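Q: My labmate handed me this sequence with no annotations at all. I'd like to see what the chain might look like in three dimensions before we decide whether it's worth expressing. Could you predict it?
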Amino acid sequence: MPNHTIVTMQSIPVMYVAGERGRPIAEQAPDAFQRLEAKLASLKGRKFYGLVVDGEYRACVAIAGDEDAATLPHPSWTVQGGKYARDKIADWEAHRDQIGPAMEALRRRPDFDPTRPCVEYYRSRRELLLMAPVR
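A: Here is what I predict for the chain of 135 residues:
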């Protein structure tokens, strides 16, 4: 088994924009993020996530503590917490082609939990954390 770091993530309330189901994930993601970011007053200090839920890519941003769920510009949802195996991709914008294969390697772990979605955490422009749920 690859030497992935095991982390425990808390549940994260987010608002999201869904991609167009049926299209390849690599095509859904940029469009969903563009639509998500277009309605945010600022991107500064925000935490962004990407998940695939039943074949649909969800571009997500954590809901800030001072935001009222009733006035959000997008639907809300909760990214389920728990144990995750984590991998990193440095300079991810220049290495987008590595995201799919790295996530597949995480999904092949024998302790992978298919009942929860995998998570992309866009920690910064330089670092992407890929996380697969594990038992």
